[in-house]
Specification:
By secondary structure, the protein is of the alpha/beta class. Strands 6, 7, 8, 9, 10, 13, 14, 15 and 16 form a nine-stranded parallel sheet that branches. The chain has a five-stranded mixed sheet with strand order 2-1-3-5-4. Strand 4 and strand 5 form a beta hairpin. The chain is elongated and about 80 Å long. The chain is 33% helix and 13% strand. The N terminus is likely disordered. The structure holds zinc ion. The site of zinc ion has 5 residues, from loops.
């Protein structure tokens, strides 16, 4: 894989941030590349860490150690790296463009080959400690730059942020049956798990299947007025794919939400590199819903191969992906809160896609981070607080109907219910971010 013209990405990142319109003009220098004419009144020079030199790019390592990345994200810490050269001219002894590029392009994922059994890059494979992903560091760095620009241009410094980030509640519908009717495999599995009695009760309609919980989820949305974003599968033949077709009567509770919620495609297990598969699944979903599917997609199992999955999704007609989270760790995989335009290290250009990263998934809290409900609740509160940004931060949650299997997940299902009912945050759908 060749990495070319990284400065194009940085230029577009800087150019897109809305706070640049507040100041007369800004120029910046990065790695020896002057992207804006030198005649402008404010100049910020970032240290050239030589990160973009070919030999350095072969390494997955971030441009600086973890401590420096964390320190520069804070107001006090960032100040230590700033040198006022002359009025209107500032030198920052930190290669912010390189660091931002490292996170947003997920550079290390193109340099580390290790993947889990589902082909995913996990947080535990990162060269950075997992705690680094608990904050949107890139967002914080750009907030520090905004502070700096305001200071040297004589504009009033922004007051500290107050309030909470909007929350986007999303649901992937994977499975609707814990105990598939009269399945010998299910019988054996239930016996091994000590749940044979429960299985038989479900089979003979003495008890509801624990996965059959869409009515509980839609009831919560109805009752609270919280809008939701649902991802449904439109196909897939892998054993890990959906156990339903789009005509399954157990999807009926979603009918009441068709007019008020957003419905996108949950790309099947094998679709993440296959534009044709994604396209055909989208067509099936649109036919079933009898309406156009929003061009928004999340891949099953969060199988996001950067940038190839984005390319396949784009080719299939999608413009928004919501798969950008680590399966094994909640937080900020891209160092960013809210939406951003992905970048392809293959071409050195932005892709015609918007990424809205996933910040907290129920299965991650329960299975990978192994948190009890109380700790999971606190973790969600912390990540929600960290999602706040001056420039469109959002906290994205994924909660499955399968968490309703309390034998496996205990009271984790209630964490979501309690969290969304007890917050004063505004709720948004993914397509309105
Ligand atoms: Zn899924």
């Amino acid at each position: 894989m060749e990495l070319v013209h990284p400065h194009i990405c940085i230029a577009s990142i800087l150019g897109r941030l809305d706070y640049w319109v507040d100041v007369p003009a800004v120029s910046y220098a990065c790695s020896g590349v002057q992207t804006v004419p030198d005649v402008l009144p404010i100049r910020i020079e970032f240290e050239n860490s030589e990160f973009f030199k070919a030999d350095k790019l072969m390494s997955p390592a971030a441009p600086y150690p973890a401590e420096t990345l964390l320190e520069t994200a804070t107001v006090e810490g960032f100040r230590k790296f700033v040198e006022i050269v002359s009025p209107g001219r500032v030198r920052v002894h930190f290669d912010l463009p390189a660091c931002a590029w490292w996170f947003l392009s997920r550079h290390e994922e193109s340099r580390i080959e290790k993947r889990d059994s589902h082909g995913r890059f996990l947080c535990s494979y990162s060269t950075l400690p997992p705690e680094l992903y608990d904050q949107p560091l890139v967002t914080r760095w750009f907030e520090r730059v905004e502070d700096l620009v305001r200071k040297i241009s004589g504009l009033p410094v922004r007051a500290p942020m107050v309030g909470t980030a909007p929350i986007a509640v999303t649901h992937d519908v994977d499975l609707l049956r814990k105990f598939p009717l009269f399945s010998p495999r299910c019988l054996v599995r239930s016996y091994r798990e000590g749940r044979l009695g429960e299985c038989l009760k479900v089979w003979f309609r003495r008890q509801k299947d624990p996965y059959d919980a869409l009515d509980a989820l839609t009831h919560l949305h109805d009752e609270t007025g919280i809008p939701g974003t649902w991802f449904l599968m439109g196909g897939g033949t892998h054993p890990s794919d959906a156990d339903y077709t789009l005509s399954d009567h157990r999807l009926a509770p979603l009918g009441t939400r068709l007019d008020c919620d957003t419905f996108g495609l949950h790309g099947s297990y094998d679709s993440y590199l296959d534009a044709k598969k994604i396209y055909h699944e989208a067509v099936s979903l649109a036919e079933a819903l009898k309406q156009r599917v929003k061009p928004i997609i999340r891949q099953h199992y969060l199988r996001l191969d950067i940038p190839n999955t984005w390319l396949a999704q784009s080719e299939a007609g999608f413009t928004v992906d919501a798969s950008g989270g680590f399966a094994d760790r909640c937080g900020f995989r891209h160092g960013w809160t809210g939406a951003f335009r992905p970048y392809s290290p293959l071409t050195g250009r932005e892709l015609p896609m918007t990424e809205i990263p996933l910040n907290a998934m129920d299965m991650t809290l329960s299975r990978y981070e192994r948190l009890d409900p109380e700790s999971a609740y606190k973790r969600m509160q912390t990540l929600h607080a960290n999602s706040l940004s001056r420039h469109g931060g959002v906290f994205t949650i994924l909660w499955h109907n399968t968490l309703n299997d309390r034998v496996v997940h205990g009271d984790m299902y209630d964490v979501f219910d309690s969290f969304v009912r007890n917050t004063s945050a505004r709720f948004v759908k993914l397509d309105t971010i």
